Amino acid sequence: MEAFLHQVFSGLSTGGIYASVALALVMIYQATHHINFAQGEMATFSTFIAWAMINSGMPYWAAFFLTVGISFVGGYLIQRIILKPVEKAPVLTNVIVFIGLLVIFNAMAGWMFEHTIKAFQSPFPKDAWYATKYFSAHEFGSIGVMLCVLGLLYAFFRFTPLGLAMRGAAQNPDSANLVGIRVSMMLAMGWGLAAAIGAVAGMMIAPVVYLDPNMMSGILLYGFAGALLGGIDNPWGAVIGGLIVGVLENLLGAYVIGTELKLTVALVLIVTVLTLKPNGLFGKVLVTRV
């Protein structure tokens, strides 16, 4: 039972990271109806920035918050400079741009920081008082960080005028335009937030999987599975889906299929959800009158 509970708590820890990636994917999807295939590579590049600042002597949390800010600005500029010109372009054009961004960020990370695997320090000491036999200090701390991020996002979108404007622009761009909301600007803000959330996820997972240019490839797949499971158009459903994927991955990997095949859990979930319930557990079912 003790080993089982450890797998569950560890799964919740990694599931929190998958949930943040899923949330970032959903934020972009709600506004553009496209999946940002470069989300993982953007998060990896942000984590490399944090690694460089920490190695230069900057305190961890200063580097953490500065990286989040840099990532927000980077995501904002990517939308305004690269994606705004193709907002109304065909779907295939947008897909090619996303794949291009994936390749660019991956290549830049390897070129600037090399392809060698690097250790990334955890801000949570191994012998911290909150570490237990069921979860490590880093697992507990990363859950706390992700809960703080989700709480801040909820408060932002629920109680601030800017957050409400962003929700309106994502859910009904035409009506938002009519009431004076700058939809394109709100979309850029959404890209910035998604990039910042991805950066947090990258910095939380790097101490576990180590840092290299391909670090987030598998994480993005798990995040995508969580987003589909919870509902690709439902942010909080995607969060729940990410947590479920994290627990399933750990339990199946430990007791059923082994650690070598854990990535197949995400692939099987993606195929199953798309086949049996394309809207996910909490997604909206759209009915169109013909």
TrEMBL record:
Instruction: Name the residues that span the membrane.
Output: 6-28, 60-79, 91-113, 140-157, 187-209, 215-232, 239-257, 263-287
**InterPro entries registered for this protein in UniProt:** ABC_transp_permease, BCAA_transport_permease
Instruction: Give the bilayer topology.
Output: Multi-pass membrane protein
Principal place where this protein is found? membrane
- Return the GO cellular component terms, semicolon-separated: plasma membrane
Extract the Pfam families matched here. Answer: BPD_transp_2
Q: Which UniProt keywords apply?
A: Amino-acid transport, Cell membrane, Membrane, Transmembrane, Transmembrane helix, Transport
- What protein name does the entry list? Branched-chain amino acid transport system permease protein
Q: Which organism is it from?
A: Quisquiliibacterium transsilvanicum
